[in-house]
Design brief:
Aspartate Aminotransferase, domain 1; alpha/beta; binds pyridoxal-5'-phosphate; 13 strands; 7-stranded mixed beta sheet; 2 domains; 15 helices; about 45% helix; Aspartate Aminotransferase, domain 2
Length: about 400
């Protein structure tokens, strides 16, 4: 029997979203993710909103590797890691990730969301304090919420070194002080102030955690992420990241850290103990994606050049976008309904750029978010800029 209060609540919320123009559309794509995709009932659309930063989602070698994984190991592990779900390809991928991001070891998960939910509750001790940037990704926020109530948690102002330092000073009695930040902030597209934060962590003997989901494959001359961008490879204690963006775009995530920290996660983290392992097809395709980046750093160069070209193009049209080397370019609109309206107008012109509103960003800070890709040609970028000019 349906519960009437439950149904009424859902109907009311959906109606209020529709009335205020805040309903998010879900476009159904009928082709692989690539610069131009086919949308059911519409036709071809240029994509400027995927996390397909290096264009590897439909790279022939990445696809072939995924198919090979399926042939070698079948659909999946049908098990969690410690029972009978650890495959040779998991270990190969994890060794490759650790080597690529500059840590001793790594552990894969079915998503970076899972990785963040594994990390904080498992490794934070009762006398620790977690200091988290206010604009950190929702998966970090939720990961920290899962930590025992005994562990103190504080939020510091976004990229604010003074605020962070005062909180570090005030927590001198804690056994371990954690500083947690995104490498590239997903809604602002700005970069963590890593050199200063590394220095603060050294001075106060704090543990640094960086979620580099939007930095990996994007920043640094060879795509090794935010630490490479600042010439600080090996200086971040714990790195989490996704395989669902630049590194093939399928799904999956990882925690990269010291050997012992990874061993504890393997033994104790709830997502490791109670959730299936990454499918082999994804382990293979992600591994191949990293190899492609290592063998063809020109893809990363192309992304950097596209980022610079598109940022300049938008600025020339009068759009105010904060200066940043990242592939995330937010265009602030303010009102959510207006952001969705503008996104629809671009879509009608054949360009897919999503409008973000509450609860993804705070109320009143709705925006369009452009994401660049190495796969976009000069013609693609000009087509998109022409649409922005009309907007
Ligand atoms: C900073 C950050 N961390 C974690 C995630 C979650 O990644 P996944 O899709 O692998 O769960 C995202 C995805 O948007 C992200 O932007």
């Amino acid at each position: 029997m349906p519960n009437s209060a439950f149904d009424a609540r859902n109907i009311e919320l959906m109606q209020s979203l529709a009335d205020s123009g805040q309903t998010k559309p879900f476009y159904e794509i009928t082709s692989p993710m690539r610069p131009v995709v086919n949308i059911a009932g519409k036709g071809e659309v240029l994509v400027l909103c995927a996390n397909n930063y290096l264009g590897l989602a439909d790279h022939p070698e990445v696809i072939d590797a995924g198919v090979q994984g399926l042939k070698d190991y079948g659909a999946g592990t049908a098990s969690v890691r410690f029972i009978c779900g650890t495959l040779e390809c998991h270990r190969k991928l994890e060794t490759k990730i650790a080597e690529f991001v500059g840590t001793e070891s790594s552990l894969s998960y079915v998503s970076c969301w899972n990785a963040n939910e594994a990390l904080f509750p498992t490794l934070a001790g009762p006398d620790d304090i977690l200091l988290s940037d206010e604009l950190n990704h929702a998966s970090i926020i939720d990961g920290c919420r899962l930590v025992s109530k005994k562990v103190e948690k504080q939020v510091y102002k976004h990229n604010d070194l003074e605020d962070l330092e005062s909180k570090l000073k005030a927590s001198a009695a804690k056994e371990c002080r954690w500083v947690i930040a995104d490498g590239v902030f997903s809604m602002e597209g700005d970069v963590v102030h890593l050199p200063e934060i590394v220095e603060l962590c050294k001075r106060y003997d704090a543990l640094l955690v960086v979620d580099d989901s939007h930095g990996i494959g994007v920043l640094g001359e060879t795509g090794r992420g935010t630490p490479e961008h600042f010439n600080l490879l090996g200086e971040v204690d714990v790195i989490t990241g996704t395989l669902g963006k630049a590194l093939g775009g399928a799904a999956g995530g990882y925690v990269a850290a010291s050997q012992k920290a990874i061993e504890v996660l393997e033994q104790r983290a709830r997502p490791s103990l109670f959730s299936n392992a990454l499918p082999a097809t994804v382990a293979y395709s992600a591994c191949k994606a990293i190899e492609v980046v290592q063998q063809q750093p020109s893809i990363v160069k192309r992304l950097h050049s596209n980022v610079a070209t598109f940022r300049k193009g938008l600025a020339d049209l009068g759009f105010k976008c904060p200066d940043s080397p990242t592939a995330i370019i937010p265009i602030m609109i303010g009102d959510e309904a207006e952001a969705i309206k503008k996104s629809k107008a671009l879509y009608d012109m054949g360009v897919m750029v999503i409008g973000f509103g509450f609860p993804v960003v705070p109320k009143g800070e709705a925006r369009l978010r452009v994401q660049m890709s190495a796969a976009l040609t000069d013609e693609h970028m000009q087509t998109a800029l022409d649409a922005f000019a009309k907007l």
